[in-house]
């Protein structure tokens, strides 16, 4: 495996999500004022459900933490059920006790999108480095909405979504409503400034993207391969998502 990338393979998607939730809980317990980088998407739902349960038991508090989400669709805001703002409100911000003034997403409704991208990048810089950045991975290897071809030093900006990304997200939109063609996303360079990065990949649909990111040639064709340059990035996978990797890379890391 390439230098700087750790790989943890767990038997099931539930076990992989539990591992990631525990890492987030540990980061917040160690430093209650930590800055978290958060992701949306189906992969994250079990992680956020576990964090919500820990909050409910009184085991965990986010009241002093700050968060920055990776991305948002252009044209959508909290009022649209498929927006990432609505996803976060339902999955995490509602159930746990974040201070609403300290949770951040790019504003997909901003009248000047380039100014909004610059504002968001500056806000992340001003908050100090993100301590723990959570990532999912697209079937085409995207991280955030950084599609194949993105420069590894890119920052927050407006991007055009690929056909495959729009198709993957179509189920979240009402029938007959088009998936937005553009989004605001942190850049790969923005992501790489985080102190620690944890990418969660579950399911066979992610297996090719994971194998390319970890063991294929690194480069902009595989946005997630940028994590190999980071030094403190971990891929947490279930068996299905790791199934296209040489088992010698991960056999010893399978738990339960
Ligand atoms: C979401 C994001 C995306 C997703 C990726 C996987 O904020 O930035 O990169 O992490 O598209 O999505 P799911 O988990 O729905 O397969």
Could you explain the architecture of this structure?
The protein is an alpha/beta fold and 256 residues long. It has 8 helices and 10 strands. It has helices at 13-30, 45-56, 84-93, 113-126, 163-169, 188-192, 207-215, 247-250, and strands at residues 5-10, 35-38, 66-69, 71-73, 103-104, 132-135, 157-160, 182-185, 196-201, 233-238. The strands form 2 sheets. Strands 1-10-9-6-2-3-5 form a 7-stranded parallel β-sheet, with helices on both faces. Strands 4-8-7 form a 3-stranded antiparallel β-sheet, with helices on one face. Helix 7 (207-215) links the parallel strand 9 (196-201) and strand 10. Helix 1 (13-30) crosses helix 2. It starts with a strand and ends in a 6-residue tail after the last helix. Fructose -6-phosphate binds at residues 39-43, 70-71, 136-138, 142-145.
Please describe the structure with a list of short key phrases separated by commas or semicolons:
about 260 residues; 7-stranded parallel beta sheet; 3-stranded antiparallel beta sheet; 10 strands; globular; binds fructose -6-phosphate
Low-confidence stretches: none
Strand order of the largest sheet: 1-10-9-6-2-3-5
State the end-to-end CA separation.
23 Å
Name the assembly state: single chain
Hetero compounds:
fructose -6-phosphate
Count of DSSP strands = 10
Task: Report the total helices.
Answer: 8
Judged by helices, strands and strand pairing, the structural class is: alpha/beta
Biggest pleated sheet:
7 strands, parallel
Helicity range: 25-40%
What gross morphology would you assign? globular
* Overall radius of gyration: 17 Å
Query: What letter string, H or E per element, gives the SSE order?
Result: EHEHEEHEHEEHEHEHEH
- Average predicted confidence as pLDDT: 95
> What proportion strand?
15-25%
